Fold this protein.
Amino acid sequence: MDRLRRFASAALAILSLTYVLGALFDPPFLAPLMKVSCHRLPHRSFHFPWGMGGQCARCTGFWLAAFISSGLLFVRRIPGTVRTGLLLLAPMLVDGTMQFFGLHESTNPVRLLTGAAAGLGLVVLLGRAVDG
């Protein structure tokens, strides 16, 4: 199981690092990938001195948390249950759904936090899947 956990965490780390770099720097060669996975709306994205990020605030938080926690998963088991992982995904789903249906307009800090919780939730679920 250690090998499977390390393989899964390394694969997620590579994928999430790609998205983190795209979110922060939006290099042209990653633009097609960023467009497939995120709406990239300017008012829902972070703006840096070098330009707008390549992902919205929620996706930025998601991939950043997934990258950081995948590093932890590489070296040890992540505590938590499937229920914990699903509970960490819930705030993003609720906030995103309410925003989608026009019930409220979220803020970028809230999007960042709900995305980060969901990224951690993904790693908790991945950890449960590979560690049993």
Q: What stands out?
A: The chain has five helices and two strands. Residues 2-25 form the longest helix (24 residues).
